[in-house]
Design brief:
Distance between the termini: 30 Å
Shape: globular
Strand content: 15-25%
Largest sheet: 5 strands, mixed
Helix content: 25-40%
Number of helices: 6
Structural class: alpha/beta
Number of strands: 7
Order of helices and strands: HEEHEHEHEHEHE
Strand order of the largest sheet: 3-4-5-6-7
Length: about 170
């Protein structure tokens, strides 16, 4: 991903937390750096992109694999995370358009943590509605961020500060 948020995470997190970061675009994604192969499939064939990324990490012996998605990427993490040996998922601005309650129910049995970071002024899902939707997953946590929008633009939203939400609604 060429987004400012992922670039900042990939640059800072390895040094801050001693973790590896793998960024990738799903099929058909276009950015200033080019276009990935394949065609966008609305979240269906993209399950193979998630599987390939997890396998890439597992093949290299990386421990404690987490999926982190933003917007559409959160839908993929919700839908396909339980299919893999991962430690959990972090969701930035989850719209919950493609991910259904039955997808969320799979996380109940899966049992791994699910953390949703939801901007107060998000275009698709606000913290109160996110708390309601995620309430079916006991291990899910929703963190609301006052005054913020879907794209997480601005220096005050650097990843150093994401660990300090302005409001937390635990389910």
């Amino acid at each position: 991903m060429d987004s400012h948020l992922y670039r900042k995470a990939a640059a800072r997190l390895p040094h801050m937390l001693n973790v590896a970061v793998l960024r990738f675009n799903t099929r058909g994604t276009e950015s200033p750096r080019g276009r990935s192969t394949g065609s966008f499939d609305g979240g269906n064939l993209e399950r193979f992109d998630v599987a390939a990324a997890v396998k890439f990490c597992q093949d290299r012996g990386l421990p404690n694999i987490w999926l982190v998605g933003w917007s559409f990427g959160t839908e993929l993490a919700i839908k396909y995370g339980p299919d893999h040996q991962i430690s959990g998922a972090i969701l930035l601005s989850p719209p919950l358009h493609r991910a259904t309650d039955s997808d969320l129910m799979r996380w109940v049995e899966f049992g791994q943590p699910l953390h949703a970071l939801v901007p107060e002024l998000d275009d698709y899902l606000v913290p109160a509605d996110a708390s309601e939707r995620f309430s079916i997953v006991p291990q899910a946590r929703v963190y609301g961020f006052d005054g913020e929008k879907h794209l997480w633009v601005g220096e005050k939203l650097s990843l150093i500060h994401i660990s300090e939400p302005t409001r937390q609604a635990e389910i």
